Model the fold of this input.
Amino acid sequence: MGQMLRRIQELESEATSQRTGDRSMARHCEVTVKHFPDLSQLPPELSLLVLSHLNATDLCLAACVWQDLGNDELLWHGLCRSQWRHVSAYRRQTEHGFSFKKLYLQLDEATLTFNADFQLGFEYLMKYKLVDDTPEELAKFLHNNRQLDPQKKREFLASRPDVLDEIVKLQHFENQFLPNALRQFFKETAPLSERTDYLGDLITKFSERFCACNPQLQLSQETVYVVCFSLIMLSVDLTSPHIKNKMSKREFIRNTRRAVAGINDEFAGHLYDNVYLVGHVAPKPRA
Done:
């Protein structure tokens, strides 16, 4: 009985100590919050390092407290570059009155407008001279901006074949396996799911670029063109839930050899394996 009483007293003592420790820690946290350091009193390089971890919204809020630090051009320059790697307006940074914060807000508005209506977005870019109206500059802007809606980007490229040509030139397919290169290209150009003139133009341009990047393969543009459509058909066959009887590897090899002269069984087999294991060569873009 005495041992049981002593054990109860020990447990009560431990619980009291724990509650005391919790209250002490809470008071410590309160003191810590109350004594958050004033960034304006720290060395500038340390203050900027702290604020460099904020996004644009939080940095605007920080500017309400530390106006000079929150509006620092170095911070907004970094935010611009992290979101839009290539913008023609960057070349104007030496002009009087130029502001990276203002530029960031304009680029953000341009992106939102483009994703709603690509024509209005393009007009916004031209109105504020954010991007030069040349195929090369527009292609670099689209190529380096991952925030644009893929469907709106496709609609714009379909209306501007000159920009699409420059987009193709920015692709690098050296030493890439054909299905992997095709996935990379489709990720950039967001093709339609059905066969259209736009899809045909894409495959033609891809075939030319792939052959130019891999002359050691000694594949003709016509061969690559036909193989690309074979890969698209195979992708649909293997990934569609509506097709019950999937194409076998042997069937794909036989069909490919019939469609394209000079394709050996080993190469065709590797093509099948890639689609079977990796997936569709033209996957739907994420929303």
Q: What stands out?
A: The mean pLDDT is 87.
